[in-house]
Write a structure and sequence with these properties.
The structure is a single chain. The chain is built from 3 helices and 4 strands; from the N terminus they run E-H-E-H-H-E-E. It is α+β, with helices and mostly antiparallel strands. A two-stranded parallel ribbon has the order 1-2. It has a two-stranded antiparallel sheet with strand order 3-4. A hairpin with a 2-residue loop joins strand 3 and strand 4. The relative contact order is 0.18.
Length: about 90
């Protein structure tokens, strides 16, 4: 099989709310997905994301950051001016 590009998408992503005025929002994500459907990239395939195992997260994030993210599960939280989390 030739190398490809995995496009990660789950319909739940459309419900993400990064806060008022933030460019990251559901209608923007939906528009991007629609364009990628219309203009298929050779070798690209849609894949439903799965949770990353702890060992993978620990390779790139400090344990205190992982704990902070997990503590916010199910809530709205702003980590910094550009990084928000929604339920």
């Amino acid at each position: 099989m030739a190398p490809g590009l995995d496009l990660l998408f789950d319909g739940a992503m459309i419900g993400h709310d990064a806060g008022p005025g933030h460019p990251e929002r559901g209608d923007r994500l939906e528009s991007i997905r629609e364009e990628l459907e219309r203009h298929r990239l050779p070798g690209a395939r849609w894949v439903r994301p799965t949770p990353a195992p702890a060992v993978a997260l620990e390779r790139v994030h400090h344990p205190s950051h992982i704990a902070d993210v997990l503590a916010q599960d199910g809530r709205y939280h702003r980590f910094d001016p550009d990084t928000g989390m929604s339920p």
